[in-house]
Amino acid sequence: MSRPRPEPVQVVKQRRDAVLKALVSNIPYYSFMGFQFDRRGDEVTAIMPYNDSLIGNPMLPALHGGASAAFLEATALIVLSWSTLWEDMESGALSLEELEEGKLPRLPKTIDFSVDYLRTGLPRDSYARATLNRSGRRYASVFVEAWQDQRSRPYVQATGHFLMPQRQDNV
Questions:
Q1: What number of CA atoms fall less than 13 Å from residue 27's CA on the CB side?
Q2: Are residues 24 and 30 in contact, defined by beta-carbon separation less than 8 angstroms?
Q3: For a Cys staple, 161 with which of 42, 54, 85, 111, CB 3.0–4.6 Å?
Q4: What is the C-alpha separation between 69 and 59, in angstroms, rounded?
Q5: The Thioesterase domain covers which part of the protein (predicted)?
């Protein structure tokens, strides 16, 4: 009795990248804001490249709090969706053809989102990562933090609660 041969790593990477790209491109606001997402294995890092339009207080200058909050919420939603699609993606239940046609499961809906502004967001690139505190069939809790120069010095963090979409048997 022999095991099935594993897929080539390039195919797996291509499928993972396609899922992440499909998730992000499904929300036009993310491209409007310039949000980018970088995948390394099962970890996703969000990037908000600096742009003059993100400045809220030109006297300091400082990033607008709403832009920072939107960046954190986007990171939480993408990481949460990424984690729920992981099994389907790894098993091949999500095909590249379906993704290219835009057939993706619904995204979680935000119940509440509490933001803590820890220090001034400087006029530079920002990075964020999310941690899933709890992810069940109906509800999820996510912690997100963003930093600029040093990951150990976040400038904004948030906790969000999300209503998970009902999963269908076929994805």
A1: 21
A2: yes
A3: 111
A4: 21
A5: 63-151
Backbone angles phi, psi at 4, to 5 degrees: -65, 145
The answer for residues whose C-beta is within 8 angstroms of residue 141's C-beta and 6 or more apart is 132, 133, 134, 135, 159, 160, 161, 162
Highest averaged pLDDT of the listed ranges 11-20, 75-84, 124-133: 124-133
* pLDDT over 70, % of the chain: 94
Q: Which amino acid is at 96?
A: L
The residues pairing with 46 across neighbouring beta strands, listed in sequence order, are 37, 128
Cβ pair 127, 47 in contact under 8 A = yes
Question: Could you give the angle at which helices 65-91 and 9-25 cross, rounded to 10 degrees?
Answer: 140
Question: Phi/psi of residue 31, each to 5°?
Answer: -75, -35
Structure-token pair, residue 164 = 């998970």
Q: Which residues touch 108 (CB under 8 Å, ≥6 apart)? A: 77, 80, 81, 84, 140, 162, 163, 164, 165
Check the CA dihedral 72-38-93-87 and report its sign.
negative
Measured between alpha carbons, how far is 51 from 14 in angstroms, rounded to an integer? 30
Q: Give the burial class of 112: count Cβ atoms within 10 A of its Cβ; 0-12 exposed, 13-18 middle, 19 or more buried.
A: exposed
